[in-house]
Amino acid sequence: MMIGEPVNIWLRNARVIDPSLERDFHSDLLILEGTIRECSPGISLGAEPANQVQSFDLRGKWVLPGLVDMHVHLREPGEEYKETIASGTRAAAAGGFAAVACMPNTKPVNDSAAVTTYILSRAKEEGSCFVFPVGAISRGLKGQDLAEFGELRKAGAVAVTDDGRPVMNSLMMRRALEYAGAFDLTVISHAEDLNLAHDGVMNEGPVSTMLGLRGIPRAAEEVMVARDLLLSEMTRGKLHIAHVSTAGSVRLIREAKSRGVPVTAETAPHYFTLTDDELMTFDTVFKVNPPLRRPDDVRAIKEGLADGTIDAIATDHAPHSVLEKDTEFDLAANGMIGLESAVPLLLDLVREGVLSPLQAVARVSLNPARILGIPFGTLTPGAPAHVTVIDPDSSYSLDCNSFQSKSRNCPFHGRRMQGQVLMTLVDGRMAFSRMSP
Q1: What whole-number distance in Å separates Cα of residue 75 and Cα of residue 162?
Q2: Which of 94, 111, 121, 355 could form a disulfide with 360 if both were Cys (CB 3.0 to 4.6 A apart)?
Q3: Catalytic: 199?
Q4: Is pTM beyond 0.85 here?
Q5: Distance CA 423, CA 432 (A)
Q6: Domains plus CATH for the chain?
Q7: Which of 163, 316, 348, 391 is catalytic?
């Protein structure tokens, strides 16, 4: 990664929140040569020369395991005018993320070892954080022939999905779950019935009726969630439901977990923050798939996060240029960027009492790391120093024009936010910082 050499850092007087150890306490954290050396109150440098260790007083600040976003679109290869691995990982580091998992709907599709290897090579050359490629379920995302999962896994893929397109053929989804099990891969489901969605552009309901826009019923998501849960139960294949947006989906996943189905799930900040009322302005920045839903869905998403039905929060960072967004609503592309706005929205859940700090941090660090099977989400001494420092009380107006991302399709531009990333360390390297010793 192109972010310099490991630094020696002494983080003092911080609130350390580590869900891997179920600890939320005031402590120091000492990082030497890229490794967490000690995490305890009142650390003494001992024989370490003080002038070789950067010291930061973090009273009132939080120190967390480096965050993990398990669902982003980096657009490279093929659409570098929207985002690149370099710009996307800079955005990730600025948002507190030490690792991201990138979706395969690139051009060409990541359905082969060659594309996976290319992504990893570019990330090694220009990345500001770790990049974990997710391979395609089907060749070309066409839903006709399975990709070579073994080849993808050997090249470095951590999961498989046809994200952006659902696997409409139930037999193919069954085979995917069976085949993925042989390589210990999780199958990530983009749950959408295209026949029910039927070219809709927003949630079906009172607002779509008022605006005269074609609606997508909640059942378009829910029937596919139900199908994939049944197939996971039958095959025992590991299933992950992406971008959960409806109350019905939460209910189905909760019930499936209660009977032992090997399923996990994620949602995105916009699904617990925004509703389809935002579309009254016809602003295409709010056009996303699955669409923004109703207030009762937002409540259900929060309840699912609180009780553990929804394991992870991922941004579904989807950069687009003005070419795709500044057009008629029906023709505009789906998607929002989210890497650099996620932390304050996550902290809103803590302030509302939906999640405890430990629970909130787990959903953006330990849990996604466990789902993907990657070594992140802990501040245990001896572990690589993937660390995020935030100021939970910093108040500011979000300005997407200052973002590291190449795209500006952020629905929270101009919104008053509370909570800001101050520093992101990746392997002990300073990937992002607003601070000086």
Answers
A1: 15
A2: 355
A3: no
A4: yes
A5: 5
A6: 9-63+382-433 (2.30.40.10), 66-372 (3.20.20.140)
A7: 316
